[in-house]
Each structure stands twice: as C-alpha cells, then as structure tokens.
Amino acid sequence: MAELTHMIDSEVFLAFSTYATIIVLKMMLMSPMTGYFRLTRKAFANQEDTSLTSSTEDKKKMVRVDPDVERVRRCHQNDLENIIPFVVIGLLYTLTGPDLSTALLHFRVFVGSRLCHTVAYVLPLPQPSRALAFLTGLVTTSSMAYRVLITALYL
Amino acid sequence: MAELTHMIDSEVFLAFSTYATIIVLKMMLMSPMTGYFRLTRKAFANQEDTSLTSSTEDKKKMVRVDPDVERVRRCHQNDLENIIPFVVIGLLYTLTGPDLSTALLHFRVFVGSRLCHTVAYVLPLPQPSRALAFLTGLVTTSSMAYRVLITALYL
Amino acid sequence: MAELTHMIDSEVFLAFSTYATIIVLKMMLMSPMTGYFRLTRKAFANQEDTSLTSSTEDKKKMVRVDPDVERVRRCHQNDLENIIPFVVIGLLYTLTGPDLSTALLHFRVFVGSRLCHTVAYVLPLPQPSRALAFLTGLVTTSSMAYRVLITALYL
C-alpha cells in the first residue's frame, strides 16, 4: 500500500471523506423519517412513545405496525447492509492508492445508486428500478474490494 | 487535513479510540442481553435454539415473540443505526485536526447520550427521555459531519 | 500508539485489510442470498417486488413471511451486529502495533468463527454449534478491544 503520510492528504482521501460523509448522513436521515411516519401514521413500537403525540385517540391502539413505516424501515435496513460495507471497503481501497479518476468514479456511482435506491424504495417506483440501484451499489463495492484484495492480500 | 503522522499519535486520536471502543463494546453487550432475555422468557427465534434451555415445557411453543426481547432488540437496532455513523464520521472528524477540548466534548456528549438512550429504552423511562437522548446523539454526529464537509469537501 | 507511517505498510495492516475485506464480502453475500430465497420461495416484502418473478400465481399472496427467508435475514442481522464491531475495533487494534502472530490469530479465529456461524445458521446445525461460533467471535473482538483500551485509554 502507498505510504499513508502522502495518502491521507491526497485528493482521493478528501474525496472519500466527502462521499462517505454524505451517504452516511443520508442513512442517518432515515431515522427522523421513520419518526415522522410514526407520528403522522400514529403507529408506534413502544407503549411509552404514544405520549409523544397529542392525539386524544385510544393510545393502546397506536402500538401497531403500519405499512408506510415498515417501508421506510426496510429502506433504512438496506442502507445499513450496503452503505457500511462501502465505507469499510472504501477506506481500505483509498489506502491502496488508486487513480483519482477511478476512485471518484467508484464513489460517485455508489452514492448515486444509493440515492436512487432510496427514492425507488420510499415512493415506490416500479421494479426493477430498486433492484438495479441495489445491484449497482453492490458491484461498485465489490470492485473496490477486488482491488484491496489484489493489492493487500496477506493470509 | 492535518498530516496523519502527527494526527495518529495525537490526544484527539487516543480519545477517539477510547470512546469509540467503549460505545462499540456497549453495543456488543446488547447481544448477550438479548440472549439472556430469550433464555429467561423462553422466547426463541429458531426451533433448534430451544435445546439451549433445560426446561421440560413444550419446545414448539418456545418459538415465539416476547415483548421484552423485542424491546432489547429495538434498542440494539437503534444502536446500529446511530453508533456506527458516529464511528465512521468520528474517525474522519479526528483526521481534520480539531481542538482537543472540542473533540472531547463531542465524544463525551455522544457516548453519554447513548448510555442514557439504552437506560431509557430498556427500563423503560417515560418519553421524551429516550427521544431527547436519541436527538442529542444525532446532533453530535451531525456537528462532526459538518466539520468534515467544510474541511475536506471534494466532489 | 505506534507511528502510523510505519504501521500502515506493516504486515499487520495488510493482514487486517485482507481479513476485514473477506468477512465484509461474506456479509454482503447475505443480500443476494436473501433475494434468491425470496424469488424461489415467492415470499416478498413489497408488493412491487412480485413483478420480479414470472410466476402467474396470485401476486398479492406473495407479500408474505417465509421461514427460510427469515432465517437468512436473522443470520445477516447477526453479521451486522458482530462483523462491524470487529472491523471498527480491529482497525484501532491494528494501530496499537500488536505482534503479527497475535494479530493473525485474532483475525483468523474471528473470520473462521463467523464462517462457521453462517453455516450453522443457514443449514441449520444443532445447537450449541451456532452459539459457540457466536461466542468465539464475541470473545475475539473483546480481546482486541481490551488491548485498544489499555494502550490508548484517554478519557
């Protein structure tokens, strides 16, 4: 791997920091979005949470499952399953010293694919739009993992 | 970003390593806690798991959902959704060379807020205690993300 | 902590990169495996996903929960809860400058335990095989966390 003192101030590392932060922030936004749907749909997971709404309806009935809330939660879960591997493998990939243009291509395609995935999941758009967005992200991360393995392989 | 050779041995990096390890260990403890509740409540997710208890009751009925187990699992899931973004963004934040006192403030507030969140979720405490603990953590991570983006922005 | 310029090109770092990438790739494979079970069992989470199968059966009935799909999903969730802490704590552990042989032992035991865990979960094997694989991974990560804390402790 390239010497880190030179790597860490490189444009590749700055680009990784930027795209990783943006897509992790996107993932974090799914929590308030779930909260918004829970409050507007009056569908909570815990009895004590029903006190957060000022509604005068029967609070016991508000501990229930709502399809819109579950949709946002599945989107969030898919983010966890895909964005965190991207961050881990992307960091190691950055330390292998890739070309700036190649690295930017990987980061931009991944972040773009996950933004499309969220839109396709929450609206929802007809399939296979979400499946394609998901696969694009998976292939991008796998491509970075391939470079890490051929560069750093030490078993 | 600051030169890493100087950063990595800095007090900010040591502080990040300490607080990140503590809060990730806390998150890992949720797994044994779930196991403890599954064993004591006799509520398992898999048929083969019922052999782990010496109870002579009907083992088929032990594959069931228990409210206490689900509460711990939701707490664990919320940890995954919030502690991992903290670790990712906190590492990049550490590399931007923040003041030690500012960095310590972020790390301590985040770790404190997540400890409060777990207590508020598992006991449970009345709302909005858990909501406030959750929001405090979210704002802390967002504040670090803001510094990463203004320091490293490279699109 | 050891000076990073020397650490990052060290064999410990290369070994960490290799094992972390392998086990994160394994975790990512759980997504296509879930998709495969959803398609073959005709059990989808979203109404729009039923268009991905060419089956002529009633598509409304395909939005359902299937035990095999849920088993793979629980395995994936357990991976998230254990592999990500390993990656975070393993990276910090690598930067504390451990012996190569000790580090390799940790990385190999962890990766091996998680491969056993997946086999034990998906087949499934009788308990306590899965419980032992899970505990082995937990103890390995905790051992690395202990070294991070005694090396870097800064509260």
Tell me the layout of helices and strands:
3 copies of one chain form a homotrimer.
Chain A: H1 4-8, H2 11-41, H3 67-95, H4 100-122, H5 129-152
Helix pairs in contact in A: 2-3, 2-4, 3-4, 3-5, 4-5
Overview of the structural elements:
The structure is a homotrimer of 155-residue chains. Chain A is mainly α. Chain A is built from 5 helices and no strands. In chain A, helix 2 packs antiparallel against helix 3 (67-95), helix 3 (67-95) runs parallel beside helix 5 and helix 4 (100-122) packs antiparallel against helix 5 (129-152). Chains in contact: A-B, A-C, B-C. At the A-B interface, helix 1, helix 2 and helix 3 of A face helix 1, helix 3 and helix 5 of B.
What is the gist of this entry?
3 copies of one chain form a homotrimer. Chain A is mainly α and about 160 residues long. Chain A has helices at about 5-10, 10-40, 65-95, 100-120, 130-150.
Task: Describe the structure using short key phrases.
homotrimer; 155 residues; mainly alpha; 5 helices; 72% helix; 0% strand
| Unreliable sequence segments of chain A | none
Largest beta-sheet details of chain A: none
Helix content of chain A: over 70%
Biggest interchain interface, per-side counts: A-B, 30 and 34 residues
